[in-house]
């Protein structure tokens, strides 16, 4: 009888080294093709302003709250907070406060008309704010609340609440003001002269002047964000038609991040609905935020991305 060959561990099958090498090569290809765990994930910490005022960590945990409703606000470089407070018994005309994280009041201004809708701390330490009412205006006040600059706004006076929103001072010394019911964004000189304006398709809430002289504008009830060039031509826009599902429900606050992405609020969304949305230039949704609070987020400030503090001043 012919003796059969028997393969043992001392004498490997001729195909085994090839199969092992092929398997190793396949695993290597898969490892290179597969993103690392957590790669591409975006986290943000941020200050939320609205019916509820709070700071959310990059882990999504609320780590600070303020007991009053706010319209606008900032986390300052020293960690203090500048807050535009809503009308209340204490602030019948609205107001502005600067506080520590322990809620110690460092500055307080009480509005003299219907409401105060925005504030901004300037590089010289003064505070810019707007007053809505029969005499709509921008003010600059010093640390004692003394009025140093008054800029009258050209707008309708029938509806005080719909006069203006997130006014900001520009690097050239002028002021950029979204005027809701007039459906226009205007740039004013300190003397009150209008030197630039653009009509908007709906009520403008934010007007953010970008480094390339474009202006990013959130249109609230229009559920859209537009970017216009220096001549007022729309060069980019986003609406619910561009998203996988309708996510924009009153586009109020907004911020352009250093990487070119845009974050904006969906203010009319309450508990367990998407309140903040981040999109790329290509209109891809890359980050969202929701929580259990019944109030929407009116305005906000992204503080860091993936644990790294954002450049200052923030574009918002």
Structure description:
By secondary structure, the chain is mainly beta. The chain has a single domain (42-309), classed as 7 Propeller (Methylamine Dehydrogenase, Chain H), CATH 2.130.10. It has 1 helix and 25 strands. It has one helix at 16-33; strands at residues 44-50, 53-56, 62-66, 70-75, 81-85, 95-99, 105-110, 115-121, 127-132, 137-141, 147-152, 168-169, 175-179, 184-188, 194-199, 204-209, 215-219, 224-228, 234-239, 254-256, 262-265, 276-279, 285-289, 297-305, 308-309. The strands form 6 sheets. Strands 3-2-1-24-25 form a 5-stranded antiparallel sheet, with no helix packed on it. Strands 4-5-6-7 form a 4-stranded antiparallel sheet, with no helix packed on it. The longest helix is centred in the first third of the chain and has 18 residues, at 16-33. It is globular. It starts with 15 loop residues before the first helix and ends in a 7-residue tail after the last strand. 36% of the residues are buried. Mean pLDDT is 90; it is low at 1-39.
């Amino acid at each position: 009888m012919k003796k059969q060959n028997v393969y043992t561990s001392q004498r490997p099958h001729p195909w085994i080294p090839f199969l092992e090498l092929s398997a190793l090569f396949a695993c290597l290809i898969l490892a290179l093709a597969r993103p690392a765990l957590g790669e591409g994930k975006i986290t943000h910490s941020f200050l939320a302003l609205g019916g509820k005022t709070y700071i959310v960590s990059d882990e999504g945990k609320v780590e600070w709250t303020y007991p009053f409703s706010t319209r606008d606000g900032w986390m300052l470089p020293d960690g203090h907070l500048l807050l535009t407070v809503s009308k209340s018994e204490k602030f019948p005309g609205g107001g502005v406060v600067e506080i520590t994280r322990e809620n110690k009041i460092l500055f307080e201004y009480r509005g003299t008309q219907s409401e105060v809708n925005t504030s901004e701390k300037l590089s010289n330490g003064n505070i810019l704010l707007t007053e809505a009412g029969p005499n709509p205006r921008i003010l600059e006040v010093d640390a004692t609340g003394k009025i140093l600059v008054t800029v009258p706004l050209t707008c309708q006076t029938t509806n005080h609440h719909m006069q203006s929103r997130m006014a900001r001072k520009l690097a050239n010394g002028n002021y950029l003001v979204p005027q809701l019911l007039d459906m226009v964004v205007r740039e004013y000189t300190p003397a009150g002269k209008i030197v630039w304006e653009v009509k908007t398709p709906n009520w403008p809430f934010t007007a953010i002047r970008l480094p390339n002289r474009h202006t990013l504008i959130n249109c609230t009830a229009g559920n859209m964000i537009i970017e216009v060039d220096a001549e007022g031509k729309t060069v980019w826009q986003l609406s619910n038609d561009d998203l996988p599902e309708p996510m924009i429900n009153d586009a109020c606050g907004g911020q352009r991040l250093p990487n070119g992405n845009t974050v904006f609020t969906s203010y009319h969304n309450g508990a367990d609905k998407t309140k903040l949305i981040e999109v790329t230039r290509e209109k891809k949704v890359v980050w969202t935020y929701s929580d259990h609070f019944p109030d929407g987020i009116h305005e906000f400030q992204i503080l860091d991305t993936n644990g790294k503090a954002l450049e200052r001043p923030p574009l918002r």
